[in-house]
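INTERNAL AUDIT FORM
Audit reference: QA-55
Scope: verify that the stored structure record matches its stored sequence.
Auditor: D.O.
Record contents follow.
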Amino acid sequence: MKRLLLTAIMAAVASIGFAQDTTTTTTTTTTTVKNGDTTVVTTTEKKPRTIFRFGYRQTKVDSARKAARAGKPGFNFGITFSRVDLGLATLIDNGSFTLSPQNQFLRYRSWKSSNFGFDLVQFGYRFDNHFKMYLSGGFDWTHIRLRENVTIQKGGSSLTYINDDVEFSKNRFSSTYLRIPLSFEFRSNEDKDGDRFRFIAGPDIGLLMGGRVKQISDERGKQKIDDDYHFAKMRYGAFARVGYGGAGIFAKYYFNDMFENSPAQAGLKNFSFGFTFGF
């Protein structure tokens, strides 16, 4: 979680842009008297004013160029670092936020269970100045901070665990997915500062890259055990983002079960929500 917070802080700092406007004017008047003649010299100096704004901003272009590009349809493709999500991960057990008896070993600390992700590449089409759609790709991590002193077992025909007689100071159960969301973005007109209100929603597909159990205890020190832990090889769901400028909130819900080939965990699903940066 510390690494996630550090990454989020760095992303937030990177998103603070600044612009310079030559709107501060200083006028200096000098009066000189020589041989009975009076000379008055007036000097006007324009100094740039630095304005700090929160959010990812593009370099301003001249008005003619901007007007020519506004609302022009077209395809776009590129490398990006955007839609950085940092929020809380929640388990929903057959429609309930309370875990069923067979899933009590997955009891977790709500404020220490997190979701973190971002996009690195995108391909899309802009229809006009207010609507565009794009397919993007990135990574998504879900970290469940377990309360119980249990060790999730790797391998096996289903998800299993053992109770330990060790007191874990950290017992984290994680999954990593390659995320491939299809986004439909609606944007308002720009305000005087060039910012917009945005609403983005669409389906999201995730391909499992791996799972991990990370434990820290006095008896065993730090341990990291990698396996797929019966996480769904492919997950599918929907997401929504609402924001202004370069920051907002997000929510993600996955329709299929978190685990596969594990009947006792049937109906256990993943829901995440929190803050998003860099539209």
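Auditor finding: record pair retrieved intact. Residues 11-22, 50-65 have pLDDT under 50 and may be disordered.
Action required: none
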